[in-house]
Design goal:
308 residues, alpha/beta, Rossmann fold, 2 domains, eight-stranded antiparallel β-sheet, 9 helices
């Protein structure tokens, strides 16, 4: 954890020292396997982590809050579903840049961005775990109840616990966070968002749903600005959007720039908002849908808890 001087501090990639003044480092799988980080006791969690919803944060908190270990998150540079089926990919809840920013804010010390190549996905679960255990001094592995790894996949949480039995690696299997009796998942959040439940999604993300425009081409008209969308997603970031309608939002510009409250209009082909003097628009923070009546999704999940 960050508060300890010897563990969980920032990684300086130039000297492979650990420096608390430096930000979270993002490296790839090959860099991790080079063994430069094998000398420090480490707690690891693994997942796609699209959206960093309540279930994801339950895993990440356990590695961040561990005593005497550095926290390491393994995730993917590109969503595996996008790598396997680009045409069928439903879109990101958060762009990779947003995810990395939130991981750092939570207190993660380092993040490994895995390229989901044919070679990587052909690896067996045992080989993957062997490589991970060689790459870091793996003291704790925190995984979700439904985690799977390896080609097929061929290993479930019980298999993983047996694999590390008798070693110095403790495996912690975390129960799901539940919403209305069902586990919280990224796919479920996409469905809720598609129904207009931006407030429910915001609660589960612990932050208002935010559209990342930092890589989008913004077009300024005479009275409105906007970006093109396709199939309900932003073009460059491939971020899934709420359904067509009007939304109360804040436009956020470059760091230090002011915010402007306004109305966002989403239709089948674009996002549009009134021209506002906030410099270059980087993000749109979505607060509430302005429609008659209430979406069914707004009433979904008044109770959020952990299934035991």
């Amino acid at each position: 954890m960050r508060s300890q001087s010897a563990y969980g501090t920032r990684i300086d990639s130039t000297t492979t020292r650990y420096s608390p003044e430096l930000p979270m480092q993002a490296i790839d799988w090959n860099e991790l396997c080079a063994g430069e980080f094998s000398a420090t006791a480490t707690a690891v969690t693994i997942g796609v982590f699209d959206g960093l919803h309540a279930g994801h944060r339950a895993l990440i908190r356990r590695v961040v809050e561990g005593q005497g270990t550095r926290s390491l998150v393994l995730t993917f540079a590109v969503h595996p579903a996008l790598a396997l089926d680009p045409a069928g990919f439903g879109g990101y809840l958060q762009t990779r840049a947003q995810t990395l920013t939130r991981l750092e804010a939570i207190g993660v010390d380092a993040c490994v961005l895995i390229d989901f190549t044919e070679r990587f996905r052909a690896m067996s679960g045992q080989e993957f775990l062997k490589q991970l255990a060689r790459a870091v001094d793996l003291r704790r592995l925190v995984i979700g109840y439904d985690f799977r790894c390896g080609h097929g996949p061929d290993m479930n949480p019980a298999d993983i616990a047996r694999f590390f039995s008798g070693s110095h690696t403790a495996v912690e299997i975390v129960d799901p966070v539940v919403l209305d009796g069902h586990p919280v998942s990224s796919s479920r959040l996409r469905r809720i968002l598609a129904e207009g439940g931006v407030d429910v999604v915001g609660r589960l993300l612990a932050a208002p749903y935010t559209i990342d425009l930092s890589a989008e081409a913004i077009v300024n008209g005479t009275a409105h600005a906007g970006v093109r969308i396709t199939n309900g997603r932003t073009v460059a970031g491939m971020q899934v959007l709420p359904p067509p309608g009007n939304y109360e939002v804040e436009l956020v510009g470059d760091p230090g720039a002011s915010r402007a409250a306004t109305t966002l209009t989403i239709d089948e082909n674009s996002l549009r908002w009134p021209l506002a003097a906030v410099g270059t628009i980087r993000y749109i923070v979505v607060h509430e849908r302005r429609t008659q009546g209430e979406s069914n999704a707004r009433n979904e999940g008044a109770q959020i808890g952990t299934r035991c």
